[in-house]
Design a protein that fits this description.
The protein is mainly alpha-helical. 46% of the residues lie in helices and 6% in strands. It has a single domain, classed as [2Fe-2S]-binding domain (DNA polymerase, domain 1). A three-stranded antiparallel beta sheet has the order 2-1-3, with helices on one face. A hairpin with a 2-residue loop joins β1 and β2. It binds FE2/S2 (inorganic) cluster.
Length: 104
């Protein structure tokens, strides 16, 4: 989730500690284009990990729209996927970046 605009692992944040903070889940952000890019790359299989990846990618692309490969990997570090092996997820990030630049 985004906590005061920054991604955090929601499972590691006590609910009581966010009283008064700005909390957004994947449902609260405009991220359909990121989901579509991940799907187009084959980076979504069971979907269990997808919301966390989408939040991380959303924050990355808003703060570093020209992120290089190392920055992308660092931004996604800590997001675990049992299904895709990460290659397709990284491809999904690159697709999202291209579409964002072309405003598609
Ligand atoms: S798509 Fe299944 S855990 Fe990532």
């Amino acid at each position: 989730m985004l906590l005061d605009g920054k991604p955090v692992n929601s499972c590691q944040v006590l609910a009581g500690s966010v009283d008064g903070a700005d909390v957004k889940t994947v449902k609260g952000i405009d991220a359909e284009w990121i989901v579509q890019a991940l799907a187009d790359a084959g980076g979504v299989q069971c979907g269990f990990c997808t919301p966390g990846f989408v939040i991380s990618i959303y924050y990355l692309l808003k703060t570093m729209p020209d992120a290089d490969e190392e920055s992308i990997k660092k931004a996604l570090d800590g997001n675990l996927c049992r299904c895709t092996g990460y290659v397709k997820i990284l491809e999904g990030v690159r697709i999202a970046m291209e579409r964002m630049k072309k405003n598609v």
